[in-house]
Amino acid sequence: YDPARYYGKPDTPFSQLKLNEIGSWFGRRSKTPSAVAGAFSRAWWRWQHKYVQPKKVGMAPFYQLLVGSMVFFYAINYGRIKHHKNYKYH
């Protein structure tokens, strides 16, 4: 069993759709909370298998962790630093 794989009936990838097929493609998607959680879980495991758990890991997971932590700390401190752009002298 591979948690990163969808074992349901295969469908046309979104990148191969024509413009008039997009509505019916979204109509075939399951929009329940468990289906959304399953999609996020598969995406998480795909990322894990590609960057974190291969036999030869490069620097990519460390850079992703670095950028992710920078974005996270910027977001939690944004309320304190948003007024600094209007200051003439700090």
From TrEMBL:
One of its GO terms (molecular function) is proton-transporting ATP synthase activity, rotational mechanism. Keywords: ATP synthesis, CF(0), Hydrogen ion transport, Ion transport, Membrane, Transmembrane, Transmembrane helix, Transport. The chain crosses the membrane at residues 62-79. Its main location: membrane. It is found in: Membrane. GO terms for cellular component: proton-transporting ATP synthase complex. Signal peptide: none annotated. This is Uncharacterized protein. It comes from Nocardioides humilatus. The lineage of its organism: Bacteria, Bacillati, Actinomycetota, Actinomycetes, Propionibacteriales.
